[in-house]
Design a protein that fits this description.
78% helix; binds fe (ii) ion; Hemerythrin; Hemerythrin-like
Length: 157
Amino acid sequence: MDAIVLLKEDHQTVEKLFKEFGQAGDRAYKTKRKIADKVIEELTVHTWIEEKIFYPAARAAVPATTDHVLESVEEHHVVLWMLSELAGLDPEDERFDAKMTVLMENVRHHVEEEEKEWFPQVRSALGRNRLGELGGQLAAAKPDAPHDPLRVPSAHE
Ligand SMILES: [Fe+2]
Ligand SMILES: [Fe+2]
C-alpha cells in the first residue's frame, strides 16, 4: 500500500475515535476510558512508524521539508506526553475531558499540516513505486511498534 494512503487511513481512524469521544455522555466513564485507550494505542503506533520510517525517508527525498519534519517531531513530543498522562488519568478526574480536548486540538492541527502542507511535496518527490515500497515498510513495522507513548523517540528528544 502507498505510504501516504496508509498514514491518512490512520488519521481517519483516530478522527473517528475523536468523534466517538465527543459523542460519549459526560458520565460515560467506561466508554471514554476505552476510547482514550484506543487513541493512545493508535497514535503511539502511528507516531512510531512515522518517526522510524516515513519522516527520515521524506526528509532525505525532499530536503525542503526539513522544517516541517522538525516541527512535526515537536508536535509529536507534546502529543506523546499528553497520551502518557491520559493513560494514567482517571476518566472521572475533572481534568480528563479537558486533556482529551486539548489532545484532539493538537492532533487535528498536526494532521492538517501533514496532509495539506508537506505530504503532497513528498508524494511528488517519491513517486508511486517508492511510496508503495515505504508503505510496505510502514505496515510491517506496526506489529513491532511500542504501545507505551514514552517509548517513541521524540518523547525524549
Ligand atoms: Fe505525525
Ligand atoms: Fe500522521
